[in-house]
Specification:
By secondary structure, the chain is an alpha+beta fold. Helices cover 37% and strands 31% of the residues.
Length: 134
């Protein structure tokens, strides 16, 4: 399988969530991440893909290989045009749940990766970007 250095996958169905996990696995293997780091990135991507579909009404996952200070990494962006997150501080609080998903939530996903950034505005959707460095 030839891996593109960047690309986009739709997140509109449950099947797309499976496809996103498979793509992230392939991207992590291409980057030669350890099995532990692969598992962390796939788990975070699965949670964020599900959030994009369930809470954002669907959207997309974009990926790109990045380099900083001589290190290579994988950056994923989960984007939707949904209702946004009404209380970002609450959503980033450990133990808070909307009642669905794997129960990791945003704080759990944040702990699994090296870099985590979220932008959300009411009525304008949400973008979560995560990076795992080699």
């Amino acid at each position: 399988m030839t891996i593109e250095t960047s690309g986009t996958l739709p997140l509109l169905t449950e099947q797309n969530i499976v496809a996103s996990r498979q793509m992230v696995r392939a991207l992590c293997q291409d980057l030669k991440l350890s099995l532990v780091d692969q598992t962390k990135m796939i788990t975070a991507a699965s949670e964020l893909s599900r959030n994009t579909l369930i809470h954002g009404g669907g959207g997309r996952m974009r990926w790109e290989f990045v380099e900083r200070n001589g290190r290579r990494g994988l950056m994923l962006h989960f984007e939707d045009e949904g209702p946004g997150i009404p209380d970002l501080a609450l959503a980033l609080t450990d133990g808070w749940t909307s009642g669905s998903g794997m129960g990791l939530g945003l704080p759990g996903s944040k702990r699994l990766v090296n870099d985590f950034d979220i932008v959300s505005a009411s009525g304008q959707g949400t973008r979560v970007s995560i990076t795992k460095w080699k």
